[in-house]
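seq:
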Amino acid sequence: MVKIAIDAMGGDFGPEPIVKGCITALKKKKFTPILVGKKSEILPLLPKRYRDKILIIESSDVISMSDAATDAVKRKESSIYKAVDLVRDGVADGVVSAGHSGATMTLATLRIGRLKGVSRPALVTLMPTKTGRRSVVLDVGANVDSKPEHLAEFAIMGGCYAEDVLAIKEPSIGLLANGEEKSKGNEVTKAAYKILDGYKGFKGNVEGSDIFNGSCDVITCDGFVGNLVLKASEGVASTISILIKEYIKKSPIRITGALLMRKVFKLLKKEIDYAEIGGAPLIGIKGCAIVSHGKSNARAIENAIYQAISYVDTGVNTHIISRLEELKQKEI
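struct:
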């Protein structure tokens, strides 16, 4: 049975939504949850019938959002440090945290370690498309100064994730650039293009609109660019939702139409709600780490746990190692 270590103290709202999300997930999936944090705060939130189904690892320290990510390496009593080490020591198969994202990524990379052939792990996010299928975008924040070989690795890891976790047969892979032509992009993307040229599924350069139109399954970019894309997308989605509500309020006739469109709006909200995704996998490490939003509610934690279980069950890491080895042979 899959074992998932959960940072019970991470997140903006304390352990309550994390414990709730864990319990809901436990009702629907068979797995062993390991909550890491202050037992005195966790135990009162657990119904008695679940206390023998959830393990609790005591932790006296919490990395706050204002702390530097590098400080996490020294704070061995913190909840995220102990949760990550459970994966490192083979006690757990994956870790979920809504705490300090930088600390989670730093500890997962340094303590768990990278997969063979991976220079840098990448953070993955899923974007809605007009086809109903989500596109995979990486890196969205783990690296801000990527080299061409890093982008090539991200592309291959993203392809494996799309194929194994999202069950997309022969996913298409693109490099995010300022035009589809081979000549477009900066020096880094142009060099990455040469490395990936001829790789199965690689379609070349793609533009920002391709993230949402469903024409490409995996969109690869530097973490600096990817994070801007992610934050801008979240801002646009939120603004559109507000504008629609304000537009409807100005006319009684529109209110009638809005009532008919309620189901549509609910479906749209679900598509852009981060809680429905759960978190961003840090792909390329020897194990599984899901980095959730600091404002995660119980639903987000529940879905993050499902993500972790799925990641472990599919064996995507083995796939990544073999594909990167193929790329290395191609370069030789």
